[in-house]
Amino acid sequence: MSAPSDCDRSPGCEAAIGLGANLGDPVATLRSAFDALAALPGTRLLAASPLYRSAAWGRQDQPPFVNAVARLHTRLEPDVLLEALLRIEAGHGRVRADDPALRWGPRLLDLDLLLYGARRIDTPGLRVPHPHLHERAFALRPLLDVWPDAAIPGLGPARDLLPGVDEAGVVRLDDGDDRSDRRL
Question: What span is annotated as the signal peptide, if there is one (predicted)?
């Protein structure tokens, strides 16, 4: 169920999308995914974080990931935004497996809805804030690059949570991207 938030009082909402890939050409894939996010209807890409390399999380028997975060302003409702993210993943060759043994396995592209304003959502297939966001330096670090005052509903400011996670192995690859501030 979602609670009232700042999104309910204005046209649209700010959202954070986590991007990750470790198969194919992850850097090119993430840059293409930023473009696809910017092209979503009723959506503006406010900022694209620098890219980071990190060890795999959950299952370590796979190549390192390249991760980033996109900050969006969108008029899409959370479930519609999630459907759009899944279409972008599929367009980049991602096939989601139902097998739990493959969870957190290698992938061509992974897009996660990390935050949707201050909303808390818990429905089948969608939990916001992302349930592991506060545990993952590879998501918190780029989130803070694009949204320094981000707050994780129920947990507090993201900047206060980062010191509690291990940042070892999260390495910045570049100085960002020029795909920000795309118009609605």
Answer: none
Q: Check which CATH number belongs to the domain holding 36 and give it.
A: 3.30.70.560
User: Is pLDDT above 50 for 177?
Assistant: no
Which band of pLDDT confidence, cut at 50, 70 and 90, is reported for residue 94? Answer: confident
Mean pLDDT of 117-144: 92
Shortest CA distance to 150 belongs to which of 166, 132, 134?
134
Residue 179, in any domain of the structure:
no
Residues with a known catalytic role:
94, 107, 110, 112
- Please tell me the distance from the alpha carbon of residue 115 to that of residue 117, in angstroms, as a whole number: 6
Question: Within a domain: residue 177?
Answer: no
Task: Produce one character per residue of 85-111: b if its CB has 16 or more CB atoms within 10 Å, e if not.
Answer: beebbeebebeeeeeeeeeeebbbbbb
Q: Is residue 59 situated within a structural domain? A: yes
| pLDDT over 60 (residue 120) | yes
Count the domains in the chain. 1
The reported pTM is: 0.87
Domain assignment of residue 49, given as a range: 6-172
Residue 150 falls within a domain, yes or no? yes
